[in-house]
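Supplementary Methods S3. Complex input for the flavin-adenine dinucleotide-bound model.
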Amino acid sequence: MQGRAAKPKSVCVVGGGVVGGFVAYLLAREGVEVSLLERNRLGSGASGASAGNVQTLSNGFQGFHKELGQESLGLYRRLLPSIKDESRVDPMDHEVRYLYAAMDEEQATAIQAEELQLVEDGMKAQWIDGQRARELEPRLSPRLLGGLLHSDCIQMDGTRLVNALGRAAQERGAYVAGSEVAGLELDGDRVTGVRRVDGTVLRADMVVTAMGAWTGPAISDWLGVSLPILPQSLQKIHLLTGDQPLECAVRWDGINMVSRRDGLTHIGSKRDGFGFDAHPTEEGRRWLLEHAATVFPGLEARVAEAWAGCAVATPEAFPVLGPLEGHQGICVATPSSNGFLLAPALAEILTSFLMKGEEHPLMEEMLPGRAVMRARGLTDPYGSAHETR
Ligand SMILES: Cc1cc2nc3c(=O)[nH]c(=O)nc-3n(C[C@H](O)[C@H](O)[C@H](O)COP(=O)(O)OP(=O)(O)OC[C@H]3O[C@@H](n4cnc5c(N)ncnc54)[C@H](O)[C@@H]3O)c2cc1C
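Predicted complex, serialized as structure tokens:
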């Protein structure tokens, strides 16, 4: 990695999603002069559309993703009390149990094969059979053979969390503004600030791009650097299930269903193509409802709202984090498909790097240059590694 520049006194974070929110908050806690710029409302990108699952097995049961996910879960548990306290915003967080459901023998064998290692790794996950699952949640299908019940998960409202982060950062002195960034200010290869659409310039020792799915085109336009970060359009629905929330959340065949504290139940996601054209469709709604009805045939519910959002797709679902090679004064902070889970870990890793020069052991794998190499080496870099949500 290129050498770290001097510790920045001022940082401009572009993009007010969950990643930008955590970066701004953690840097503000370190006493840095932080600006957080969001062109719409805080949380108006993928973060607000998200299911809000902090679910560490969501992108694979082993390896890098699980390790980073566990670290992030620990940070959520450590930071949420102070975020809520300082912001006085309730992100509507609550503990949930996730059942990785098996509806046939093949699925059951695949899921059971993971159990031993997960238990050895200290994860709160165990296989339960269909009968035990239906004792937990009687509306589950009689066809369900069983599933891996994972207990160490949190769910919350994405928009509320990002607002809490923005408010808590402000309480720590951050400047939070609704402005769109149109470009970067450059002095040779050094980024010295951002230029907003109204023409005003904001100088900073460091710019952090946390623009989610919009990072790729922006970095390409502003610096002529091509990063393998694509927008991935996802559809979801919220169901009204009366006063009977699901007793356990369920993941099966590319969907997850989880009841929220406000009484709505999230069902997501129908994965559409790569691109910025994210909108709910009749086909998406039907697909989601059919999947839900397979797992919960007796569920009495009506659709309250349908949404679509632009999540991020990166090669093999690795986040892209750290300084941009060939330039100074700029870092990228883009998660992968499970960015809601990963945001605090990415923010903490970046903060330690900027403030203390510490390189986290997992950082090497996430450097922008690694993403470019990974994309080159794979025939379908955005393929199977991405779980639908
Ligand atoms: C339906 C759905 C369900 C999901 N469920 C989960 C889940 O349960 N768990 C999980 O871990 N992940 C989930 N995800 C993925 C997760 O939501 C994203 O990975 C994460 O929210 C990305 O956060 P972000 O801050 O990088 O991007 P975003 O939240 O998209 O934020 C980027 C922000 O940058 C702003 N911006 C862009 N360009 C500019 C500019 N030029 N100037 C100023 N601002 C700009 C945008 O307006 C946007 O608000 C889901 C995604 C979707 C769509």
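The radius of gyration is 21 Å. The chain has a mean pLDDT of 93.
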